[in-house]
C-alpha cells in the first residue's frame, strides 16, 4: 500500500486478499467528500468520506501518541465541515464484521486538508448527502435499500441496548437515528447493512412518531445540567426565558435597587427581550449594548406601542457597540452609575460582562450558553483545564471572583445563572429561585 491514492472504491486493496493484520504503516491518501461526522468523545470521532463513485469509506479520527492529540482533533472538527472536498492521509485497517456482513476497510486518519469548502458554492444551504455528487443510480440503490431494510441481519447491534447510552429504543431494539430523522428514512446510507433497527416499512410513520417523542424526552434529560434539581419535564419553554430571568432579577435585587442610578445595562440582547421586560413592563431604566440594531419581534412591538400610548414610555436607548475598554471609557457615567450588568445567552460577550462588572465593582448576572472555544482557544481554568465544554466554562467564570455564585432558572435549555451581587461578600451563598 505504499503511495496508494484512493479516489474510488476500485483504488482500495482487494478485501479477499487481506488478512487481519493487513493494517499498514504505509501512508495512504484519500480524496473525497466528507459527508458524515460522529463525535464519540474529544479523542474519538468517526465519519464517512464519499469517494468519486459514491462508495463510502469509514473514517476514524483517534488521539494517538505522536500522531494526533485532542487539540488537533478539535481543530479538525472546526476546520472540516460536512460537504467539504478533502484530501486525507492515514492508514487502512481491515474491519472484520460478524457473519452476515461483508468486511471492509477502516481509514485511520492522521491528517486532513480541505480542498474545497461546501459553503463556497452553496451559500446559505445546509449540506445533505443527496447533494454530494453521487450518481443517480447510486442514490436510487441507496434509497431502495433503506426503504426495504427492515430485516435485522444476524450481526445487528440493534439489540445491544446496554452498549449505547444515547440511543432511542423501540420494541427492545436500538433504533437508527438516521432512518427515523428523515422523510422516508432516506438519511440512512447503510441500508440493509445498517446495524440498527428500521422496523417494517409499512410501520415507518408510526415508528417515526414514537421515535420522535422519545428523542424529545431524551434530549430534555440530556440538557439537564448537573446540580439542577428541577424536573426537566416541568420546565417552561425557552421562549419565556427572558421573562423568567427578569422575574428572578426583581426577586433577587428588588425594583428599587435595579432602578438605581442609570439602571440596568443589558449586553448582547439584540432582540430587546430584557429591556421589554424591565423597562417597558416594569419601568426599570435599561440600556442595551449591542453592535447589532435592536430587532423587536411582533409581540414586543405591540408591547412598546401600548406602553407609549398609555404611559408615554418609548423603547430604551441602545449603544451600537461591543462591550470593550473603549466603550467603558466613552460612557464612563453610564457604567459608573449603573445598578447591574446582565446578559441572557450573550455568547462572545459573556466573559466581557463579568470582567467589566468586576473591574467597575458592579453586580452582574449572566446566563451563559455557547462556550465559543474557537473564538477563545486559550482560556483555561485555574488548574490548567482547557475551557472547551459548558461545565468548564461555568467553572472558569465562577473562578473570576470568590463571591460569584450560581443557580438554576426554571426554563428549558441552558438555564444556569452566574451572579455576583455583593463584591465584598467572600462567602458563596445559594440563590433562591422563585417559581415563574
TrEMBL record:
Protein name: C3H1-type domain-containing protein
PROSITE patterns listed in its UniProt record: ZF_C3H1
Domain C3H1-type: 175-201
PANTHER family to which the protein is assigned, alphabetical: C3H1-TYPE DOMAIN-CONTAINING PROTEIN, UNNAMED PRODUCT
Zn finger region (C3H1-type): 175-201
GO molecular function, one term: zinc ion binding
Keywords: Metal-binding, Zinc, Zinc-finger
Region span, Disordered: 1-23
InterPro entries hit by this protein: NA-bd_OB-fold, Znf_CCCH
Amino acid at each position: 500500500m505504499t503511495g496508494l491514492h484512493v479516489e474510488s472504491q476500485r483504488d482500495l486493496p482487494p478485501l479477499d486478499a487481506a488478512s487481519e493484520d493487513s493494517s499498514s504503516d504505509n501512508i495512504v491518501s484519500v480524496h473525497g467528500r466528507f459527508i458524515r461526522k460522529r463525535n464519540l468523545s474529544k479523542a474519538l470521532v468517526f465519519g464517512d468520506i464519499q469517494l468519486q463513485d459514491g462508495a463510502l469509506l469509514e473514517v476514524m479520527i483517534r488521539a494517538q501518541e505522536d500522531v494526533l492529540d485532542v487539540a488537533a482533533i478539535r481543530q479538525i472538527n472546526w476546520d472540516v465541515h460536512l460537504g467539504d472536498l478533502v484530501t486525507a492521509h492515514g492508514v487502512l485497517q481491515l474491519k472484520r464484521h460478524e457473519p452476515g456482513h461483508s468486511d471492509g476497510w477502516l481509514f485511520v486518519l492522521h491528517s486532513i486538508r480541505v480542498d474545497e469548502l461546501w459553503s463556497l458554492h452553496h451559500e446559505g444551504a445546509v449540506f445533505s448527502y443527496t447533494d454530494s455528487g453521487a450518481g443517480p443510480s447510486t442514490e436510487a440503490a441507496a434509497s431502495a435499500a433503506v426503504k426495504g431494510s427492515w430485516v435485522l441481519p444476524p450481526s445487528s447491534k440493534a439489540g445491544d441496548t446496554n452498549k449505547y447510552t444515547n440511543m432511542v429504543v423501540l420494541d427492545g431494539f436500538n433504533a437508527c437515528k438516521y432512518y427515523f430523522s428523515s422523510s422516508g428514512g432516506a438519511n440512512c446510507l447503510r441500508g440493509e447493512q445498517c446495524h440498527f433497527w428500521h422496523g417494517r416499512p409499512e410501520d415507518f410513520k408510526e415508528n417515526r412518531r414514537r421515535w420522535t417523542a422519545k428523542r424529545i424526552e431524551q434530549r430534555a434529560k440530556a440538557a439537564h445540567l448537573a446540580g439542577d434539581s428541577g424536573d426537566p419535564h416541568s420546565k417552561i419553554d425557552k421562549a419565556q426565558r427572558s421573562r423568567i430571568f427578569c422575574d428572578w432579577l426583581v426577586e433577587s435585587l428588588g425594583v428599587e435597587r435595579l432602578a438605581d442610578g442609570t439602571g440596568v445595562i443589558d449586553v448582547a440582547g439584540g432582540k430587546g427581550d430584557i429591556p421589554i421586560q424591565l423597562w417597558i413592563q416594569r419601568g426599570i431604566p435599561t440600556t442595551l449594548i449591542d453592535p447589532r440594531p435592536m430587532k423587536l419581534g411582533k409581540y414586543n412591538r405591540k408591547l412598546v406601542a401600548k406602553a407609549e400610548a398609555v404611559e408615554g414610555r418609548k423603547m430604551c436607548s441602545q449603544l451600537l457597540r461591543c462591550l470593550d475598554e473603549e466603550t467603558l471609557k466613552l460612557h464612563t457615567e453610564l457604567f459608573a452609575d449603573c445598578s447591574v450588568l446582565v446578559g441572557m445567552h450573550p455568547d462572545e460577550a459573556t466573559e466581557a460582562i463579568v470582567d467589566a462588572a468586576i473591574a467597575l465593582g458592579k453586580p452582574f448576572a449572566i446566563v451563559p450558553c455557547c462556550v465559543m472555544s474557537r473564538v477563545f482557544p486559550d482560556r483555561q481554568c485555574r488548574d490548567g483545564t482547557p475551557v472547551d465544554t459548558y461545565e468548564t466554562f461555568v467553572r472558569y467564570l465562577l473562578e473570576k471572583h470568590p463571591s460569584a455564585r450560581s443557580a438554576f432558572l426554571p426554563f428549558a435549555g441552558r438555564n444556569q445563572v452566574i451572579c455576583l451581587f455583593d463584591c465584598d461578600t467572600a462567602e458563596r451563598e445559594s440563590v433562591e429561585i422563585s417559581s415563574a
